[in-house]
Structure formats: C-alpha cells, structure tokens
Amino acid sequence: MHVLSNPGLLALWERGSPLHPLDQGLLALNAALPDQPPDGLADWPLGRRNRALAELHCSCFGSTLQAWTSCPTCNEKMEFEMDVRTLMSEAPNGDTAIEVDGQSFRLPTSRDLAQATREPDPRAAANRLLLRCRLGADGPLNWSEEELERVGNQLALADPMAEVRLSLLCPLCSHQWDETLDIARFLWAEIDARARRLLWEIHTFASAYGWTEEEILSLSATRRARYLEMIRA
After folding, report:
1. Cβ distance 202 to 213 under 8 Å?
2. Which of 74, 126, 164, 197 has a CB 3.0–4.6 Å from the CB of 181, allowing a cystine?
3. How many Å apart are CA 41 and CA 111, to the nearest integer?
4. DSSP state letter for 53
5. Residue 143 three-state SS
C-alpha cells in the first residue's frame, strides 16, 4: 500500500471533495493501491474494503482514530479514540457466499451499497441490497422483516468487518447505545483536514517568501513548522 505524498494527497482531495463518501473511500483506495483496477475495488466485500481503509489510515495518519459524537438522550458531546489496527483483521474474499432458507447470497460490496442508499426507506434499501446480492432468481422479491433480519445476521457473521459497531456510554447520564463507525468518512475527514492545513501553509509561505507550491511541499513537516515559527515571530 502506497503512503500518500503531500502533492498526491492534495490531488486526491481536489478530485474527491465533491463526491459521495462511498466514492471518496474508493478513490482513496485507488490512490493507495494503483495496481488494483478501480472497478475491481468497488466489487470488494465491504469488510475487505474497510480493512484496507483502516490500513491506509494507519499508513498516512497513524493508528489512533479520534472522533466525537453526541449522546442521543442528553445531547452531551463526547470525544473518544480507538486503535484503527483493531479493524485490520482478516476479511473474506469475494467468493464467500451464505445460504438462508434455501437461498444463496454473496457478500455486499460498495457497488451494492451505493444502489441501496438510493432508497429513502430503510426497509426498501435492505430489500434492494438483498436483491442485488441474491444468487439465482428463485425466492421472494420482497422479504418480511424477519427474513431481512435473518439474512442480515448471516451476512454479518460471514463478514463481521462490513459494519463496525461501537458501544458507547455517556459519562453524564449513563445512557448506553451502539453507533456505526464509517471508516471511509473518518479517513476522508483526515484527508480533508490535512489538505486544508497544507493549503494554508502554502499560502503562508508563498506570501512570505514567494516560494512555489512545489518548493513548499518538498520541505519536510519539521522544516515547514520551523519556518512557520519564524514567520509568526
């Protein structure tokens, strides 16, 4: 996996900023895995995609993921951090399939998820996802709540990294709840923050010294920090 250089990160940020978070995650993976066909990445099972995104986070931003959320009961803001390396367990390949009630399903991919998110209703989205993942043409076209849950549970067991659930506890009101961790969104937030910081540094150095963007980005982070100290002084 390639570590993103500063020029590469800025180019990635510029291309990906207007895209949907699903596409941003795939774009980031394509930049880090240039030998992989872009269309092929979209067909990886979600657990394999999430593992690769966690590895990319470690390579570029370190193993600690810092985030915040709000308690759904009292609205208390909470900061938390986790080790991204816990998300880097082995993930199944695209050949894995499950069978429920005589029907076979392959593991969902980013491409499947993109189609499902077009449905505003959660049940319709789940139904559309299963329709895309079903192998063969037999069986219902509209599953009951119980059937959706049964197939969903089996898919989660087959690909546990497809959806990362965090158990949180509010320190103020002691409310406990689960929240989904979207590693693609968190990774892109890191990319966005670093890109904006680099642009600010480029603007500062260019204004102070007249250097070009290429010259500024060729400096190490340590040297840029020292120059910024002198500019501020």
Report:
1. yes
2. 164
3. 9
4. H
5. coil
| Rounded Cα distance, 167 and 164, in Å | 10
Residue 67 has pLDDT above 90, yes or no: no
Residue 140 has pLDDT above 70, yes or no: no
Contact (Cβ atoms closer than 8 angstroms) between residue 160 and residue 47: yes
Amino acid (1-letter code) at residue 52: A
The closest of 107, 87, 90, 88 to 158, measured between CA atoms, is 107
Cα(3)–Cα(59) distance, integer angstroms: 6
Cβ–Cβ under 8 Å, residues 162 and 50: yes
Q: Is the pLDDT of residue 94 over 70?
A: no
Count H helices and E strands in the chain, helices first.
Answer: 10, 7
DSSP, collapsed to helix, strand or coil, labels residue 109 as strand
Q: What is the pTM of this model?
A: 0.89
Element (H, E) at 168: strand 164-169
Give yes or no for residue 7 having a pLDDT over 80.
yes
The winner for highest mean pLDDT among 16-20, 89-93, 96-100 is: 16-20
